[in-house]
Amino acid sequence: MKVRFGVGLGAETSPSQLDDIVDHLENSGVDSVWFSELVYTPAVDPFIGMAYALARTRRLKVGTSVAILPGRHPVLVAKQLASLAALAPKRVLPVFGLHSALPAERDIFVVPDGRRAAVFDESLHLLRSVLRDKETSFDGEYFTVRSADVRPLPAPPLDIWLGGSAPAALTRIGRLADGWLGSFLTPDEAAAARRRIEDAAAVAERAIEPDHFGISLAVGDGTIPDDVLAAVRRRRPDVDPAELVAADWPALHRQLDGYLAAGLSKFVIRTVGETDHRNFLDRFTTELLPRQN
Predict the structure, then answer these.
(1) Reduced to 3 states, what is the DSSP secondary structure of residue 179?
(2) What is the pTM (predicted TM-score) of this model?
(3) In terms of DSSP bridges, do strands 245-246 and 67-68 run parallel, antiparallel, or are they unpaired?
(4) pLDDT per residue as tens digits for the range 169-190
(5) pLDDT digits (tens, 9 = 90+) for 12-43
(6) DSSP symbols for 25-48
(7) What span, in angstroms and rounded, lies between the C-alpha atoms of 254 and 259?
(8) Is residue 262 helix, strand or coil?
(9) Which end of the chain is flanked by fewer CB atoms within 10 Å, N or C?
């Protein structure tokens, strides 16, 4: 499996830092940069960020970690992705999720009450069809289109990855996605999630590529900030936060060993507590690029 590491940009990344970050990653040989969907923060919108980073580079891959699909029209999303892929072939890595991780932002992505999962499934079917076929017609419960013709179609077709860790989310990934980017899971939990995804794919008579399983991880600068600890405890009160967030680079390496043993090979790494983004990027390059194969 190809082991790859990318840098995740979070709420702490301001637009004024983006040119320096992207240039550093491009020149350092880092595999990818990932933009989060964080509407009520200074962070750049993921689709705008991807376009900016792609225009500024020739090698760096860009992804969303993760963008919300339910609440967006899939044909318009397909047009955005197809346009990016035409401008930068083989460098666009879309990952979508069910809803925002931030409760305050969930009302932005409007869907009928109680139907978010159903809208997500239908959105994925339509998105994949429009990105694959010419003049797609689609009659669903939530979307109807006639002769949708998004051009140019990406060649090769874009892989659509999904986030999520709930049983229904993992089943959806097996049925409808090309890969998985998890978060807030221990290595043992990630291994179980991978098995569930592969089982769901087998039932649907399809398969996920063996190296299309990844996870988003965080690393501190020696400690885990109190606000991060509190946020992790709210999200996973059943797990010691130190199992999910690495306080320093040696702890991150130990975590990576566990995730690699669990069958994961793609990693999006973000910093928590580090105020100097240059220092984080230098450490990222020194610590993680030697672990790629």
Answers:
(1) strand
(2) 0.96
(3) unpaired
(4) 999 999 999 999 999 999 999 9
(5) 899 999 999 999 999 999 999 999 999 999 99
(6) HHHHT--EEEE---TTSSSPPHHH
(7) 9
(8) coil
(9) C
